[in-house]
């Protein structure tokens, strides 16, 4: 019998808390019957919902917590007030203590990152963690990082992110040498800020065995899927992510308005309904929900706070893959070839 994958859940996190976490976990269990959940939350709220999912209940160990971190909580307050007590902290702590292989929370991003950094610590030679997100593209999917963990980055941080992103891509896309690009304002070598140009030089000269560095990529290359991994610092990455999400909603609204404007448009929609459904499915953000915190001594996945049960299940899927295919060991193996260790 294969060893079960143990996922700890912050049942109280997100805009909707257990009302999304519980059915989301039930969906994930259908996809991955070998999951076992360690769930942290208010027992009086969580247990009635668990009772409605008897199969899930058998796969869950529920541990009561009185405290939940609010979505508008400052990271410093989350650490000070919730340390050792909140559902978020205890879900991450379970990874640190070896009780879980990965943690998932839909809670406050800043609070979750601060909690994870304090509780798990960063990996050796990694100064700052990053959030890696799956991104739908014309070729399928790519990984983009950092999408908001930290603002600004020097060349060393960008190189580390390239290595960690490629490690994740090897697992997610089953590729021996994922292609990697640095997001820049142009593809010419003379363009961009010094940190980006220096990181590019290091990656080119290093010729790392487990990633294929393709140089600079521009904003439109993200959607094209030009490379498997796009690397940028958190300020630009978060703006790119929010812009893409907003554009997807804008296009959806345009289509709905256009298809209901006239009788002929409504008739045309009926003929093209299958194609529109395929488009909606492709652009559904719930299918790619789940940002992975890379650079920590443990796997933590951040679900979008406002997602539904399908979206939360997708975040659990990501955590399952990262744990099942041993992301941490892959990153450690690839960091052995870190060119920064040879340039200091």
TrEMBL record:
Its EC number is 2.3.1.274. It is found in: Cytoplasm. It catalyses: a fatty acyl-[ACP] + phosphate = an acyl phosphate + holo-[ACP]. One of its GO terms (biological process) is phospholipid biosynthetic process. Its main location: cytoplasm. GO terms for molecular function: phosphate:acyl-[acyl carrier protein] acyltransferase activity. The keyword Cytoplasm applies. Pathway: Lipid metabolism; phospholipid metabolism. Keywords: Acyltransferase, Cytoplasm, Lipid biosynthesis, Lipid metabolism, Phospholipid biosynthesis, Phospholipid metabolism, Transferase. It comes from the Bacteria. Transmembrane segments: none annotated. The keyword Lipid biosynthesis applies. GO terms for cellular component: cytoplasm. Catalyzes the reversible formation of acyl-phosphate (acyl-PO(4)) from acyl-[acyl-carrier-protein] (acyl-ACP). This enzyme utilizes acyl-ACP as fatty acyl donor, but not acyl-CoA. Belongs to the PlsX family. Homodimer. Probably interacts with PlsY. This is Phosphate acyltransferase. It comes from Microvirga flocculans.
């Amino acid at each position: 019998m294969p060893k079960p994958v143990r996922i700890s859940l912050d049942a109280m996190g997100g805009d909707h808390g257990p009302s999304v976490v519980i059915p989301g976990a039930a969906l994930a269990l259908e996809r991955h019957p070998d999951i076992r959940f360690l769930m942290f939350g208010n027992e009086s709220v969580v247990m009635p919902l668990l009772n409605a999912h008897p199969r899930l209940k058998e796969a869950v160990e529920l541990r009561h917590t009185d405290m939940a971190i609010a979505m508008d909580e400052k990271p410093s307050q989350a650490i000070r007030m919730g340390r050792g007590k909140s559902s978020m902290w205890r879900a991450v702590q379970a990874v640190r203590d070896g009780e879980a292989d990965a943690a998932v929370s839909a809670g406050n991003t800043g609070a979750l990152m601060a909690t994870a950094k304090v509780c798990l610590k960063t990996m050796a030679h990694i100064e700052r963690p990053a959030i890696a997100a799956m991104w739908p593209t014309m070729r399928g999917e790519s990984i983009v990082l950092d999408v908001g963990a930290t603002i600004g980055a020097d060349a060393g941080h960008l190189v580390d992110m390239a290595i960690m992103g490629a490690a994740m891509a090897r697992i997610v896309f089953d590729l021996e040498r994922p292609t990697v690009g640095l997001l820049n304002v142009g593809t010419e070598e003379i363009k961009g800020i010094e940190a980006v140009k220096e990181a590019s030089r290091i990656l080119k000269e290093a010729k790392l065995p487990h990633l294929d560095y393709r140089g600079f990529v521009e904003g439109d290359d993200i959607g094209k899927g030009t490379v498997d991994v796009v690397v940028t610092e958190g300020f630009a990455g978060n703006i790119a992510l929010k812009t893409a999400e907003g554009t997807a909603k804008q296009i959806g609204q345009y289509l709905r308005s256009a298809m209901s404007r006239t009788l002929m448009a409504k008739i045309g929609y009926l003929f093209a309904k299958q194609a529109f459904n395929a488009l909606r499915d492709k652009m559904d953000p719930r299918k790619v929900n789940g940002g992975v915190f890379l650079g920590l001594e443990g796997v933590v996945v951040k679900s979008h706070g406002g997602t539904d049960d399908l979206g939360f299940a997708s975040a659990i899927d990501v955590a399952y893959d990262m744990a099942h295919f041993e992301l941490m060991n892959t990153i450690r193996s690839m960091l052995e070839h870190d060119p920064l260790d040879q340039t200091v």
